[in-house]
Amino acid sequence: MELSVSVDKHKNRLTVVGRGLWSLKYVTDHFREFEAALFKARSAQRASTTLVDLREAAVQSPEVAAYVHGKIVEIYCPPERAVLVVNSQLVKMQMGRGLDPATHAVFLTLEEAEGWLNSLER
After folding, report:
1. Residues 32, 67: contact at Cβ < 8 Å?
2. Which homologous superfamily is 2-120 in?
3. Strand partners, 105
4. Rg (CA), the chain
5. DSSP per-residue codes, 55-72
6. What are the phi and psi torsion angles at 89 (to 5°)?
7. Any idea where the domains of the chain sit in the sequence?
8. Mind listing the pLDDT tens digit for each residue in 6-53?
């Protein structure tokens, strides 16, 4: 069970890596930490980007999945961008539902995700 957050101040990019199965309490605690990092990134001179790597995440309980999806939708607004990297086409379709294409994208590879974010930073 892991959700980690790192920050690249040069790019103003937050990176989240999720592995394993998470409890609702664990995810709630993670989002408190993440939102603090996102708030700090918002004080920079340019919009932040977030890369969320979920390729090694397990299938979560419906309660956890709904909470995560709701938070992902809630915390971003243009010009911020967030990209999720998942491990299957089915998960890509499920995660993509309800996401605003102005702020979010879902990909199967890290290269595609980084390419999308980098194209927005130019």
Report:
1. no
2. STAS domain (3.30.750.24)
3. 83
4. 13
5. EEEPPPPHHHHHHHHHHH
6. -65, -35
7. 2-120
8. 999 999 999 999 999 999 999 999 999 999 999 999 988 888 999 999
